[in-house]
Amino acid sequence: MTDCGPCRECLSADLDGEAGTVPASVTEHLAGCDACSRWYARVTQVNRLVRTAPAEPGPGLSDDQLAGLLDLLPPPPAAPSRARRLGRPVARVALALVGLAQALLGGLPLLVPGVAAVDPHAAMMGAGMMHMSHEYSAWNLALGVSFLAGAAWTRHLAGVLPVLASFVAVLLVVSGVDLVDGEVDPARVVSHALVVLGLVLVVAIVALGAPRPTLGPVRADLDPLPDAPPRPAVGAETGTGGPAGRTHRHRPNPAARHRAA
Amino acid sequence: MIDDATLTALALRARDGDRRAATDLVGHTYQQVWRMLVALSNRRVAEDLTQETFARAFRALPGFRAESSVRAWLLAIARRVAADHLRAARARPSIDPRITVEDADPAASGEVGDSVALRELVDRLDPDRGLAFVLTQLIGLSYLEAAQVCDCPVGTIRSRVARARDELAGHLTGRDDPRDAHG
Questions:
Q1: Cα–Cα distance, B143 to A247 (Å, whole number)
Q2: What are the two backbone dihedrals, phi and then psi, of residue B100, each rounded to the nearest 5 degrees?
């Protein structure tokens, strides 16, 4: 048989709807223990008193006090500037266009053999120039696709940056060197501008950032006992809403209720 | 009674500097904060401490993430305000701020049904038990929320509430019936 202490604790929690199911051992103990029955009767009486007692209204705040408090509030977030608001969508559209152009630049030589103006018999590093051209086209196509995808799913853009930035950096350096050495046609170098423009747009979109994150979701799992009856308003802003409205919960022992009444 | 979701929405708007939402938030929670601070200190200082609680809460709003209920968050701040006040008061060589002017024992007057007497009995509860009782019975927090406020296990709240009821029930009869001692 349960001891009086744990039994009373369980009964007390039950009065607040916090005991879950009252174990049979507790109801049995209550039925067989005079001391606990008397205790339970008095405690339910206390509960009734507490719930019917009017709430004691606090003094409240004066207008000056309230104004002083409101001055402590965080400042409202500055409305995003026009440039910031418009900049991002514009940059995304531009990036999509750049991506499209870049994909065409890469894809056309693959689809239309004549476009890649290379000497089919020249060779380099064990591969025919034709194959080098194919490799280059594949890479251009991939960049175009990544721009398009980045414009659509901007949260992945930051991940593209290291590859893109290192590619552009190396490309610019070798293009400069090749230009000086006369190893490359300037028109060919100009076509790299597309990739550079893409990089600039990606950086811009990442820097402009997502709109201010919306307020975090309120955790629905906070209420530990969704089945618990509503709690009373005590001394809410009116100072009059006493706990009287609180519903009485079941009492496990009819005998105790009889004595309490 | 205002629901937690509404309070959370108000707090989040106040976080963005909405003064009207902040005013509503104070309106809906002032009495509960004040009542708890009465339990933790006394009626003379509770008003100032309540104001200090809202001041701290407003300053802390940028960090508010709605991870616990607004009331639990606010009352936890109130508990720290009261603790700081008690510490400061103890450092001063003055009277213990918990000591209030003692009236006649309200239970002795036989006015057990009187709400004022009941209030005084609640004020005289052991501090930890009194806090658990006020939070769960007068303010209406769940045991879990009260545990968050007190930074203690739910089981501790459960046992403190039971003990507080024990104490109050003892006062209701004017004396502890020795036959009712725990077995």
A1: 17
A2: -110, 165
Q: Three-state DSSP class for A119?
A: coil
In this predicted model, which residue has the larger pLDDT, B169 or A190? B169
Say what the pTM is.
0.58
pLDDT at B134: 93
- Taking the Cβ of residue B129 and every Cβ of chain A, the question of whether any pair is shorter than 8 Å is answered with no
Look at A74 and B1 and tell me if their CB atoms are within 8 Å. Answer: no
Mark yes or no for CB contact B138/A55 under 8 Å: yes
**Contact list, A65 vs chain B (CB under 8 Å):** 51
Looking at the partner chain, which of B1, B4, B16 has a beta carbon nearest the beta carbon of A236?
Answer: B1
Instruction: Using CB atoms, pick whichever of A77, A228, A233 lies closest to residue B16.
Output: A77
Q: Long-range contact list for B5-10, CB < 8 A, 24+ apart?
A: B5/A218, B7/B69, B7/B70, B7/B71, B8/A218, B8/B66, B8/B69, B8/B70, B10/B70
The closest alpha carbon to B118, from A85, A52, A254, A1, belongs to A52
Residue A247, pLDDT above cutoff 50: no
For an interface test with B, the pick among A10, A45, A70 (most B C-beta atoms closer than 10 Å) comes out as A70
Q: Is the pLDDT of residue B110 over 50?
A: no
Give residue-wise pLDDT tens across range A204-217. 888 877 655 444 44
- For A197, phi then psi, to 5°, come to -60, -40
Q: What is the mean pLDDT of residues B115-144?
A: 90
